[in-house]
Design goal:
Jelly Rolls; eleven-stranded mixed β-sheet; 18% helix; alpha+beta; globular; 604 residues; single chain; Rossmann fold; 2 domains
Length: 604
Amino acid sequence: MGHRRQHARAIAAAVAAVALFAAPAAAQEPPPWLQLSDGTTQPQFDFAQAIEETVFVESVLDSDRDGARDLIRIRLSRPREAQERGYRVPVVFEHSPYRGDTGPAVNHPVDVDELPQEQGARASAGPRPDLPGSLDDYYVPRGYAVVLGESIGTFNSQGCPDVGADAETLGTKAVIDWLNGRARAFDAAGAPVEAGWSTGDVGMVGTSYNGTLPNQVANTGVEGLRTIIPVSAISSWYDYYRANGLVVAPHSNTNGTGENEYLGEDTDVLGDFIGGPRMQEGGRCRFVHDFLLAEQDRVTGDYSPFWASRDYLGRVGGITASVFVVHGLNDFNVKTKAFAEWWYRLARAGVQRKLWLHNGGHGGPGGVGAAPYRRAQNRWFDRYLFGVANGIEAEPRSTVQREDGTYTDEADWPAPGSRPVTLELSARSRTAPGTLSARRRGSVPQSFVDRGRELDTDDVLIQAPDAANPNRLVYLTPALPRAVRMSGTPWVDLRMSIDNRRAANLTAVLVDYGPAGVAPAMVTRGWLDPQNRNRLDRSEPLRAGRRYDLEWDLQPDDHVFAAGHRIGLVVVSTDHDYTLRPLPGTQLTLAPGRSELTLPIVGG
């Protein structure tokens, strides 16, 4: 077993060892005027009479180097009756880089003649009070203020966006500081504005980038931030744009072409989009674009100080807020490693936490889960912002949606009783599909040739598992006699050689193969640059034809393989929708006698 998997299991053991919640982050009692039913706030204020304001909060930064501190624009809505009666209210805060004035997003090319590492280089308000979105519609009548912020360097906020680093974090923190009387703010005319109506208790919520900003600022331990609800949020930007040394893309095919429209995106592309004109040639933040482009390193894919400054996993010790994590088990934009690694470390730090996993993709729960989740969100905010003793922190920590759409509550995640099960790879033929089983049944080396950009992994390479295919290898269990649930992070440990090149993509795909007539289901996948076989922060040359032990993680998941189905491992090189795509022709060889797949199986 390699050092990476040992480290991951140590984290998992720490998760299991943290059996109790930490002390609640909010200890205040709910105000006597608050209307509750079954431990949940109820609408009691007239939303049509809400007070709306636009405020510019002074940060501690001069990120655009103009000699003045950057002002962060926020729009807020709060109940007028609370103001008139002298009630102070807590805040639901969503910060975002996407409010408006975005620029073009021109992705990097991904179709390359050879892999670069082979060379060894490195809106306006309406007539009645109503902010964009639905947060104010829902929470202002329940006695909350709602703040919608514009992240530093975006839309009407000053400064420059640095895509996940300190400027964004401190710009977000400034808003919380103002709500607690520790920072200055001004109206559009420059007159000072104070937040005397605020209790100072803040809860952040948001999806994707809007959920990542709460993760960032929670690491600072800023006083007044009582809780965060990150939905489909990033916990490490390295894990978003890289995977074990490979340059990978977040996934989306919403453009209707079937092609991943995010192929070639990176921090500079995203920075150009959120920063708009200020990031373009001649713009006041062009130096940030140049910095992102230079430091992100699309050649080696190595972990570096650039990525460390955008990695929140090692900073959870600073969190004093509670955390309610929400993620889709089929999210391949912000991949599931983002929530799982965050969750493991929150547990190790003893942070008060809750988890909601749905079986959809990027975003929050939909369908039958939408209403129960909204109520859980409401109760979570009520507990930590109003101090309502509704018991949500004592309820099962994990809620998981199953394949049939139903939700189950469990004590934790990964599911209690999950244990690593190792399946040995076997092959008795150089070309025929191999097997996965508890005992090795043959170890004939098998080779395949990368087709580069020419074949799609899902549409072609995971299909027809019982037939030989010169461009992939497949290993299968027998039909399962009973349903088997996987909960956690799978790993592969493969003995392989790259036979005619000095660099290659490596991709492992876990597939659920049903009986005849049932289409295969891609469960999860993972990637590795074999030059990063020993460490993430340093590429090491490969010798063509030499076999190496290559170990890497797949994206975490929670999946039930039904009785009668087979578990399949498909090994390919280029992953059409995620990795750089070189010209075809790289030959790779796998030695089954020194290779294994480890799955976290409930019940072992």
